[in-house]
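Onboarding guide, step 5: your first structure request.
Type a short instruction followed by the sequence, for example:

Predict the 3D structure of this protein.
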Amino acid sequence: MNRSLIAVVAAGITLAACEGFKEALTAHVDVAARAEDQELSVERLAEMIGNTDFPISTEFARTVSGLWVDYQLLGHAAAAGDSLKDTARLDKVLWPMIAEARVNAFHDQMLAAAPKHDSTANEARYGQGEVLAARHILFRTAPDMSPAQKDSVRRRAEATRARVTAANFAQIASQTNDDPTTKQQGGNLGLFPRGMMVKEFEQALLGLQPGQISPLVETQFGYHIIRRAPFSEVRGEIGQAMQRRATQVADSTFVANLEAGADVKLKDDAAAVARAVVADLDGHREDKTVLASTKIGNFTAEKFGRWVRIFPQRQQVQQVIAQAPDSIVQQFVKNMVRNELILHAADSAKVPMDPQQLSQLRGTFAQVVGNAWTQLGVAPAQLVDSAKTEQERERMAAARIEGYLDRLLANQAQFVAVPSEVSELLRDTYDWKIADAGVERALERARRIRAARDSTRAATRPQSQVPMGPESQGGQPPAGGQQTPPPPTPNP
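The system replies with structure tokens like these:
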């Protein structure tokens, strides 16, 4: 484990979740979504989707519905004077960042208590080749070179080797090196482990004593002149590398012992359950199906979904899990179980959250909410200035949200992101629902709206002034003619 033991780093505001509410919504057959007292009708959603140039799909319809819910709940909170600053609710949705901070503190405690790396042996270990450091000058050859061309390169390399010394190696490398990656660094390859370089290069390097320069070494890339760096030049870097290696060994040992002690046992259907969860994260919000058992408790579909939701690239993770073989999905589940074990270890060690960090997290959240309110035109101050009662403010906020969505889908407004922690807090606090059946009905209507719109556009499009010959009847544009331009790329 590196700086963070957790297998996923939650950067910024990166958590999403939702929770259902009144099942009575199913009785509203013409409703696609609801957010408190506001309803998104099937017809309204169909028009929003059908009148755009975005591809019509279930994913797009659900994205629009989800945005509608989050925006309307933001507007409702603003109208109701809810600052969304309640610390109990906040800390619940900020758990990924809080967990990471606590695990990092736990890791620091472990390192402080661990035996210190003995640096006195670094020079001997470097001399034995545990870690390598070198500079090189490459004279590149290519497979399609003639023998004469290759011989010319070799002779140039030999001439350079005759005049290169430890003192002028970096200077000559920066002048003659055919390796563009290292040329500006005087041929410096830095530190690297065994096995990183091609066989001929590594064998030649290991045959040198620190400070020595090799004769010409031929590899698939051409001819090299190699200088193995003396320990005095890389002492600091070697020390850091050895310390990192010692830390990695300690971390790996800790995690292995943690997993062995927890007696982790993956269920046979873990991969299938994981795929079902990522296909519908909201639907498995409270799913207690067990994916793995451990001595600290069962790892459930609910917990697995919570981890998936915090990945910054969540959609890519969902796609990979949906398509990957069982072995890959099972390993992913094991990694998430490992996260739970590490968090439990931090809890057992009673590692506290730094108060200043926690205050900063809460402050950032409040700032994000305020920015979203202002961009949507529903900040509490903006509503109070125009409406006196809460009911009037709610109507105004809802209307402004609808107008903003129309402009957004017409590419006439900048996209206002609702960070996933904000979405979770809103959906945990207020009543909301996305009705799958209503969304599907909206999709059907949207396709009819799109077809009618496209038909009208085609009928009103001016006829081409370019004479059309028989060869053009099959739908191919005439030479020099223009095709209909593609729809604009969606901003969201």
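Each response can be followed by summary notes, for example: The first strand starts at residue 31 and ends at 35.
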